[in-house]
């Protein structure tokens, strides 16, 4: 049990209470307001960045979203992580109802806000936090709300994230395996930091209460079954599942078994700390000619197999801020000068594996220069791209089974894509 909270507060940017739900009568709005005002006055202190603060027998846990602070207070020894997660779920529910959570949206919808909080927390204990389920019996239209006579089945059955009676003429499952590669390379070509953040994103359009089973090329599972992996297997680490996944089943036999929510959701996210080589390598060289002209030479090389192709490649190369009148030539794609960024942006629609392309740009410099030139702080080269049908980790969906008591046929669709996350190459 997470432990009960005494009160829940929604405060404005100055710490004044906008909404207050009192569950146990032992933490007042004035008490919380004074504490929070004192806290935001210490902006910049290490304590101000701590989401959990203990003061005079009360534990305050809070997060900020736009110009609203969400805070719960408790006099019990409670699970802070659980209640912080609850506050994030409150944000998601309010965004579902109001498009965005801001002070103005709260003031315009006080009645709806209190109705939602009544359903989401009871006597200080978190209850229902699925926006789709809440919207079935708390309906809003601008400033109006209608409450149905009885709650939906999802509130009373064991599967709180899915309603009963869902029906589709065509039963389909779409699964996207999306990986973002974050990489930082110094000017000597050494990889300083690299990791891969992945997500299994699902969209389910299934009737009834389907039971889904998903298999991956998980090394732990294959070794437990006494089988050697054909091709590449992976070590799953730092995994986070959607609440629909049966964790006990996964811990026992590594089977991902679940009854999915209706529509779109993230089934699983993961992170791999791996020394991945840069998939697209860029070299840039600047030559100065008689202080009146500079030449920029850029070479981009794809370092993945020829059967894969990167799409929507964008290479942003910093240039001196006083460069003007550019003349640009490329062997592939289009490049343009972006003066507001002091950068050259080179776009390549399709970049096959094992290929190399060149870009050359000539810039004029002002004829009058300062006697003491202050060296500019050079920004790194930033790269964006997408590679369909490719993953850095080598993760593979071995099977995706859907079983439902009516026995209908399901069409599963699986896609793989790798994209650039925080992808930077330093020049100096």
UniProtKB/TrEMBL annotation:
Gene3D superfamilies registered for this protein in UniProt: 3.30.450.60, Mu homology domain, subdomain B
Cellular-component GO terms for this entry: clathrin adaptor complex; clathrin-coated vesicle membrane; cytoplasmic vesicle
Keyword terms: Cytoplasmic vesicle, Membrane, Protein transport, Transport
One Gene Ontology biological process: vesicle-mediated transport
Top-level taxon of origin: Eukaryota
Keyword Nucleus part of the UniProt annotation: no
Residue ranges occupied by any MHD domain in the UniProt entry: 170-426
Subcellular location: Cytoplasmic vesicle, Clathrin-coated vesicle membrane
Transport is among the record's keywords: yes
Cited CDD domains: AP-1_Mu1_Cterm, AP1_Mu_N
SUPFAM superfamilies membership: Second domain of Mu2 adaptin subunit (ap50) of ap2 adaptor, SNARE-like
Family, as annotated: Belongs to the adaptor complexes medium subunit family.
Subunit: Adaptor protein complex 1 (AP-1) is a heterotetramer composed of two large adaptins (gamma-type subunit and beta-type subunit), a medium adaptin (mu-type subunit) and a small adaptin (sigma-type subunit).
Name the record gives this protein: AP-1 complex subunit mu
Native organism: Zostera marina
Lineage, top ranks: Eukaryota, Viridiplantae, Streptophyta, Embryophyta, Tracheophyta
